[in-house]
Amino acid sequence: MITDCAAGRNATQTQFKKCPQDGDVSCNGFGDFSKTDRGKPIASALFAVRDALESLGQSELDHFKELFLNWNVTYNDNQMLNVIQEHWLSLDDDNADLSDLTPYYDEISTAFRAYGWPWLGPRVSDVSAPHFNEELPPSFDITITARVNPYVGTLDESSGYEPRLHYSITGGSPSVVVMDKIAGLADAYEADIPSPSGPCTVTWYISATSKYTIEAETVRLRSTYPEKLSHRLESGTGDEPGWSGVFHVGERQLTNSYTFPNGQSQGWAADPQGRWEVGNINQVLGVQTFDPIPGENGIVASYIWGTAVGSNFDGNIVDYQADVYQRLTSPVQDLSGANQDNWRVQYRRWLSVEGNDGGLVVDGDEASIVLEYGSSSEPVLFTNPDGRDMFDKEFVIHDLDIDLADGDDEVLLHFDLDANSSVEYGGWNVDDVEFYYVNQDPGEGNFVTYGSDHVGLGGPAPGLTGSGDPIVDASPCQTAQEFVYIHIDGGQASARGILFAGTSQGYIPLGGGGVGLIDDIVDSEWVDLDSSGSATVSIDMSCVVSGDYYLQFYVYAPGQAPPAIPEAPPTTGISLSNGLWMHVVD
Asked: What share of the chain has pLDDT > 70, as a percent?
């Protein structure tokens, strides 16, 4: 690598690219690869960096050698991680400021991207929003708050590129709101989703854009959250993410669920037969297809419907074939029930396809989801983005509005894949399909988890959940006690922390990292975690006043808890749970 000859580099090396999912090395072939095969993506990327710098002159080649040696000494990366690209850029940086790039940013980043590393778009973090599939009471504005860091270049806040909140309510058109800066916080933004009256489902995502200039050309990179993927904004390139956050105003009512146990089709049908197959995920073969691989990154065996999941192809053939159309169709769904509105479908997906060209299967492949109802209606609910490849880095949950078919008793859902004649990847992998509607909120108290936890000096970030019914009896301070329970799990074993409760939701970035998610503190108490990092706190509801309360657990490093509970939550030396909203009714 650092000598003046190219010994050791060969043609087979450049066939291997980094897998989209961090740590995964199995998408490039079958079985347990040799250490040589596992190292080929990074070797190819570094040879490409060397070639680019060497073409500029001897001093640049010498700089590459210094970077290579410093990388080995400073980081000693021993896994195939996205952060390796960032390590090389940090070593190339000459002023500890990536807003003006690095001396050889273009050469290094271009080389890494050629072998599977991602664009380094803006980072959206510390997001405060209802967690996935949470059920909220009606008549509340929902505030979404986040920190946005351009990471490379500067944040683009010109019209059309500023941080934005995108949301859609069942049966309505998509809405876009420019996020406002939070006073006193340079990198924090917020926007409201005006009080959905319910019952309904809300899908949402945040977009942010960074920009920089190379050789008089402005490069814009777009990132979305919660998908956490970045791409370059170019003409003809689709901008929407592959999936979004989801919460419900009201109660989610499941009607039909399909998990395909033991490889049962459960009434789903493939057309033509054999293009789609139902089988164990252990049969999914990754040959540069970017399919899920059991045993990598916690992926466990499960039965799924997918494109040719059971085929025993050899190492030179990918899962779906060129120039074919393939459709998977659901059993008939009855959406005509009385008092059943706001219909949705939710499923788990791992999709890997080549970018299409405006929906025409010419320069790419098209994966789509189609709803069939009535006599001839087949609206397209989803299609992969135009002009760029789509690789899910994990099994993601995708939620879609099917309320167009409300009242119809013969509804079908189709998963389609049209492949062109050039590049083919792994295609569809589909599991856990659920059809549901959202009912009116029953007016009972409930718990809602929201916001991001934070791993700090207090060890692993604990999770905070609630159970029981937060209902206040009509007779205040009744004799009989009624309890709800706050559960803390996943924290540092035997650590001590404080459970704070406030009457308003906050957003207070802390000096040690993370965000305080509560404000207007009204109560606090010590909590000692057990040997598994867990604890349960009981709250007597007999004298609680109805209203909304917001809770968060602050955990200290062992031996660092103060002798007395501070008046205000600490800002350093801690780890943080997520926020927990307790909605208490009479």
From this structure: 83
Asked if residue 272 has a cis previous peptide bond (ω within 30° of 0), the answer is yes
Quote the tokens at residue 223: 């990132």
Q: Is residue 148 within 8 Å of 127, Cβ to Cβ?
A: no
Residues with Cβ within 8 Å of 476's Cβ and at least 6 positions away in sequence, in order, are: 543
Residues 281 and 413 grouped into a single domain? yes
3-state SS class at 15: helix
Angle at 228 between CA 225 and CA 229, to 5 degrees: 120
| In a shared domain, residues 239 and 340 | no
Dihedral class, residue 38 (left if φ above 0, else alpha if ψ from -120 to 50, else beta): alpha
Q: What is the rounded distance in angstroms from the CA atom of residue 549 to the CA atom of residue 499? A: 12
CATH number reported for the structural domain that contains residue 372 in this entry: 2.60.120.200
Residue 220 belongs to domain spanning: 123-249
583 DSSP β-pair partners: 446, 548
In this structure, the answer to whether residues 51 and 66 fall within a common structural domain is yes
- Per-residue pLDDT, 322: 62
The reply to whether 371 and 349 lie within a common domain is yes
Residue 155 and residue 167 share a domain? yes
pLDDT digit string (tens) for 137-187?
Answer: 887 899 999 999 999 999 999 999 999 999 999 878 899 999 999 998 889
pTM of the full structure: 0.88
Residue 226, preceding peptide bond in cis (omega within 30° of 0): yes
In a domain, 314, yes or no: yes
CB atoms within 10 A of CB 360: 12
| Domain final residue pick, 234, 249, 264 | 249
Report CA dihedral (505, 506, 507, 513) to the nearest 10 degrees.
-110
- Residue 1 included in any domain: no
Q: Are both 210 and 285 inside the same structural domain?
A: no
Tokens of 469: 């019914």
Q: Cα–Cα distance between 356 and 341 in angstroms, integer?
A: 34
Cβ atoms of residues 125 and 166 within 8 Å: no
126: region left, alpha or beta (phi > 0 left; psi from -120 to 50 alpha):
left
Alpha-carbon distance values, 286 to 303, 311, 384 (Å): 16, 11, 21
Total number of domains in the chain: 4
Give the CATH number, domain containing residue 141. 2.60.40.10
The predicted model gives 292-298 an average pLDDT of: 58
387 shares its domain with 492: no
Coil, strand or helix at 131: coil
Structure tokens at 73: 């000494």
The tens digit of pLDDT for each residue in 447-489 reads 999 999 999 999 999 999 999 999 887 665 555 568 999 999 9
d(CA 200, CA 440): 8
